[in-house]
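Q: Got a minute? One more chain.
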Amino acid sequence: MMLRSARPSRTEDMKAIAKPRWIKQGYEALTFFGTIITHTTQEAEMFNRRFDFLKNHEMIHLYQARATHDSWTCFYLLYGWYWLCASRYYRRLPNAGYLLNPFELEAYGHMHDIHYLQRQQQAVEWKHYAQMSLAERYTHYTKNMLQKQMSKNLVSSQ
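A: Always. Here it is, folded:
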């Protein structure tokens, strides 16, 4: 899969496949060199049949890879570096390496905006998050999560 993967700019849509041992419980999907990895065949078929917010999240990662010298390798090296740096916050935030990663901040921030990639034609907001200190990213994340929780509570109380 890795050796046969096309450059991100040559990938228009990502095919999903089921590889349950590759993906940790608690995660819906994983982008791996232009392929979406899921837990089950049913989930993979869902990704392949329709475009929803989860597929949008993974497609944002494709566009981010295009912005990292059009290279999956550069994307994953940077992703790993940001993950390692953010992991120091694990006492404050479980899974901080993932949640405070600039690539994930952009992907989660826009995953419900299905037209984000059509409007932007690129995904480079992660560069802004990468320039923030870890403390700033933590504050941004917790503030956004608080806002989302409050809006959920408002909707459920009506």
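A: Residues 2 and 32 are 8 Å apart (CA to CA).
Q: Perfect, thanks.
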